[in-house]
Amino acid sequence: ELTAFPKSFLWGSASAAYQIEGAYREGGKGLSVWDKFVRIPGKTYEGTNGDVAVDHYHRYQEDVDLMAEAGLKAYRFSIAWTRIFPNGKGEPNEAGLKFYDDLINDLIAHKIEPVVTIYHWDLPQALQDEYGGWESREIIPDFLNYAKTLFDRYGDRVRYWVTLNEQNIFMQHGYLMASHPPAVKDPKRMYAANHIGNLVNATVIKYFHEHGYQGQIGPSFAYSPAYPADAAPINQLAADNAEQFNSYYWMDMYVFGHYPDLIRKWQTEQGLAPEITEADDALLKDPLSHPDFMGLNYYQTNTVAANPLDGVGMAAENTSGKKGTSKESGVPGLFKMAKNDYLQKTDWDWNIDPIGLRIALRRINSRYQLPVLITENGLGAFDTLEADHEIHDDYRIHFLREHVKAIHEAISDGVDVIGYTTWSFTDLLSWLNGYRKRYGFVYVNRDEESEKDLARYPKDSFYWYKQVIASNGED
Ligand code: BGP
């Protein structure tokens, strides 16, 4: 017999500013590193960008109405730093502050809990130019000032705050794979910038806890649990290496304030260890700087095998939308990605694995003893708009239904799950894959020739999710 979903369970959906808002030069907004990066030829799929995105900036009321129609209890969105501080610092821009005031008020009027991400990758370009963004400790006071501005302005209405979205992803893509801004390939710089990211996260959480704001705060982590390719002990070891290298390296720092010894040793041998001062150590170990919940972005598991010292290195991910075109990838001496014949894949070669979500929840629960807010989960797919404006996305319903079941089982296993904000509510821009990789419950038409451009059409999954919410997960 499964334990029921708690009555207060936050059924919702998620988005991020750059991927939905558009209006990239309106309301006094400054330019972010993404506004610049998408203009470098060859960086994104067919050069797509978020200049217009799905025009949520102008259509947010229509989107919130649709959320209310679906019965959403929560909506996770991010604030664009460049709307609040066009140059990253200085005087706040009232038009930007007001946009999110209006959005938050509209959500609350519809009884939808706002879950606010402070940073979802759109760093002000001015700070990148001035001091190298994440590579300078100067970002710590600037980020804190930005976060404080949000807490003071919205803290009376917002009860869930996400500090950094997927620090592991934006650091590794930005400084190791060169597939996100600032498009650098340098592991030493990556670990140094990442350490500053940890200091920012801890500083903001500590400030929040010390200043009596109501509510809860934590990071969102992209956790893909590692499985061994088979029962060979050498592959079990590889899976343990992968777990420490890909996941515990970040989550241990958030919750315990230290990096795993195994990875510190590996970094020292490679000459990659970030400098940790005594003051850093004190801050990171201070319980006030630790999160109230772990935000979990779950898409897939990784299956890994042993990788010799002269083995394969990091490779970019499949952005082609053609199944089976991923390249070999790994960390020499620790692990490499292996095939898992038990799992189906999406068109972008992401493993489909609902049981992996249950495992992720259990591992976070047993290692960190924190409640979990599932801040992302969903299926990126090609969808077809029928002539009658229906979208029959039974594959997405199947995907989400299996993941909801896995959450239900994890709750019965004893995991405290606060809520589930699927990726995504409307279709939106996939950073590197353009608009054809769709995740939403609501289809957004991008037929620029017709007057229906950017029109919204609920998909079959929209009506399915509505039922799930109405029955509190009993569908
Ligand atoms: C996460 C990001 C989201 C979103 C999602 C889907 O890493 O936090 O912003 O984009 O992944 O990824 P993609 O768009 O690459 O399919």
Automatic annotation (TrEMBL):
Active site: 376 (nucleophile)
SUPFAM superfamilies reported for this sequence: (Trans)glycosidases (SSF51445)
Any one GO molecular-function label of the UniProt entry: hydrolase activity, acting on glycosyl bonds
InterPro entries xref list: GH (IPR017853), GH_1_N_CS (IPR033132), Glyco_hydro_1 (IPR001360), Glyco_hydro_1_AS (IPR018120)
Entry's EC annotation: 3.2.1.-
Organism domain of life: Bacteria
Cited PROSITE patterns: GLYCOSYL_HYDROL_F1_1, GLYCOSYL_HYDROL_F1_2
EC supergroup of this enzyme: hydrolase
Transmembrane feature ranges: none
Keywords, ordered alphabetically: Glycosidase, Hydrolase
Membership in a protein family: Belongs to the glycosyl hydrolase 1 family.
Protein name: Glycoside hydrolase family 1 protein
Record organism: Lapidilactobacillus achengensis
